[in-house]
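Please complete every field before forwarding. Incomplete forms are returned to the sender.

SECTION A: IDENTIFIERS
Entry label: holo-180
Bound molecule: zinc ion
Molecule representation: SMILES string

SECTION B: INPUTS
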Amino acid sequence: MSALVPHADLAPFLVSAALAGPLADVDHPASMYGRFIPLPGVILGSKEGLRAWTPSFGFRDGHGGRVGREILPKVILWHRAQTHSLGAAAIAAAATALLCWLFFRQALLPVTLGVCVGYLSHLALDLINISPIMLWWPFSRKTAHIRWPRIRVGSPWEWLVTAALALGMAGDGVMRLLRL
Ligand SMILES: [Zn+2]
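SECTION C: PREDICTED COMPLEX
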């Protein structure tokens, strides 16, 4: 059976979806990927102003402050801003497709689809999470938020929804749809 995600490609699809799930949180110094990025973390406290972020603040925007990374001197990439957007999802998908095309061409489709599903599921969950995200960047810097039962980032629910989305995408019915 040939389809966009045939059964032989299920493993790379699911693995890339799982790996891309937490990717948007690279903008947070305590996140799964963010902790390995050697750029200074900052926190904007309500009283203290901007100061250095330390691991004691944890993952959540501690002490009511806004967390970010100083990617260039005085240029701060705030948590839940540009990386939490459809534009960033498109960049991640394009970069993945390019890397696969160069080095791993036979897995281009399942891996790129997996990254799309993983990344978008993160955005979908954060949309219904506590604080808004910059969904429409680079077209708009307005933040988006849907009021819904809270699902915390990094909770088992987030993994469950990501897994359900990934499995749903890989289902035969969806594969037939995509083949049209
Ligand atoms: Zn997030």
